[in-house]
Amino acid sequence: MAEDLRSKRIQSSKLYLDVSSSKVPVIYSSSYDISFFGIEKLHPFDSSKWGRICGYLVKDGTLKKNQIVEPLEASEDDLLVVHSKSYLKSLENSWNVAIIVEVPPVAFIPNFLVRSRVLVPFRKQVGGTVLAAKLAKERGWAINVGGGFHHCSAERGGGFCVYADISLCIHFAFVQLNISRVMIIDLDAHQGNGHERDFGNDGRVYILDIYNAGIYPLDFEAEKGIDQKVKLVSGTKTEEYLEKLNRALEEASARFVPEMVIYNAGTDILDGDQLGRLKISCDGVITRDEKVFRFAKKLNAPLLMVTSGGYMKTNARVIANSITNLSAKKLIDTTSTPSSNPKYSS
């Protein structure tokens, strides 16, 4: 009965927009960016990075502003595909939201303001991740410039992650896209405990997680849900990281054949990130992303990328440079008309 209700909610959702070929599958809305009377600056996350990424891409000539796809905001019915009514109800208490986003003063802000300034931007990004799966299936790839809230599961938020956009995206793909085998490649510096709790016992979802095992969230219960884990130590450098990534991708392709790849491309692995505590160079991040896109291309699997964590002002520039590199290497097609090969540009 629960699955029937979930399927009904998915089928009645408006999040799967039809997108014109004049657009490219890069998804962003100015509503993503969080501005909350300056309070957002009390968290190290750069809550305006999403807009700056797109600004760089337009300035660099990789994209035109009118090519970017604007998603819809996820409704309560959409969120109920994964989340319980009790969890969503708990977000009507500003104190609970403050705990999740790790900004204590939010607890003292009227909830209607918390909703409009914090929850709505997150809901918009959820809509972007869900739509990204549809566009990836149609075009071969899609990038949600936001999303990647991998610490949120059906019943629990945390780590600046209020809604489980990756879990929602997968359930929509199961029902609407006839997808039955999904691989999550989580390369954020932190363990992706949210989707691991949601899909740990689901054979349709294969989870590869490469993360610093000595930092948040230290969720040992969720670790049981990881199909392939690569635990790093603080201070891991670029060469070692990329070698481990190569081996991990090779093993993953031998163990699982995905019909879709979801790539959680956190940039908190960068050298200097005080929360990620790894020492990966900017060029190393660009190479990492290229390797994942080549991996999906080799498997002929549509890939959707979300940007996830990253706690320095330099992150936006690195992400934009990486997307530009993917375009230059013909791993994505940023022209307005889709390639004659619907999976990948030549």
Automatic annotation (TrEMBL):
One of its GO terms (cellular component) is histone deacetylase complex. It is found in: Nucleus. Its EC number is 3.5.1.98. GO terms for molecular function: histone deacetylase activity; histone deacetylase activity, hydrolytic mechanism. Its main location: nucleus. It comes from the Eukaryota. Keywords: Chromatin regulator, Hydrolase, Nucleus, Repressor, Transcription, Transcription regulation. Pfam families: Hist_deacetyl (PF00850). Coiled coil: none annotated. Residues 43-324 form the Histone deacetylase domain. It catalyses: N(6)-acetyl-L-lysyl-[histone] + H2O = L-lysyl-[histone] + acetate. Its cofactor is Zn(2+). One of its GO terms (biological process) is epigenetic regulation of gene expression. Gene3D superfamilies: Histone deacetylase domain. Responsible for the deacetylation of lysine residues on the N-terminal part of the core histones (H2A, H2B, H3 and H4). Histone deacetylation gives a tag for epigenetic repression and plays an important role in transcriptional regulation, cell cycle progression and developmental events. Histone deacetylases act via the formation of large multiprotein complexes. This is histone deacetylase.
